[in-house]
Amino acid sequence: MNYAHFEADLHGTIVPQAVCTPSGSAPYPKFDNIMFKEVHRFGINLQAALNGYSHLIPDGDTRPTTTTTSTKIKIRIQWPGYPEFWKDINAKEHTRAGDPIPKWKLALCVAQVVASFYSKFMCSGYIGDWAVERIPFQSLKLLELRQVSTGSWQPVLVYEH
């Protein structure tokens, strides 16, 4: 992944994930990356997203398109030293219109997926530099979501230390 457009304004280290490449990926319609920003800097703290601090995202009520074919998308994490992890999230409102969920809710859902990843692997015994036991969840920020295939998105995460 290329992070050059963030590096000058980052206050931490980007988690060096390999780009997820689902097997059998055919050409797919591409959607724009979804940027997350607090009032004065890039990214939103995952713990703040879990705690419902949606007011930290100035454009939190915007509704980015993540799929045109389904009500769910897959959030994929390729954390260094761990097997690929993914969970499905609802990408559309449960209404007749089926509008995309707002950006604040998308941030909440991604935070929940990362929290699930942490819960699953917290006591895995991995001892590398990126062991989840060494990276406090409260120190992670969601910088961006990038589409990796039809209905699959990968978060760009920053460890603020």
Describe the SSE topology.
Elements: E1 13-14, E2 34-35, E3 44-45, H1 46-50, E4 72-77, E5 85-90, H2 103-121, E6 140-149, E7 152-159
Parallel strand pairs: 4-7
Antiparallel strand pairs: 1-7, 2-6, 3-6, 4-5, 6-7
Description:
- The protein has about 160 residues and is α+β, with helices and mostly antiparallel strands.
- About 15% of the residues lie in helices and about 20% in strands.
- The chain has one domain (about 35-125, about 130-160).
- The chain has 2 helices and 7 strands.
- Strands 1, 2, 3, 4, 5, 6 and 7 form a 7-stranded mixed beta sheet that branches.
- Strand 6 (about 140-150) and strand 7 (about 150-160) form a beta hairpin.
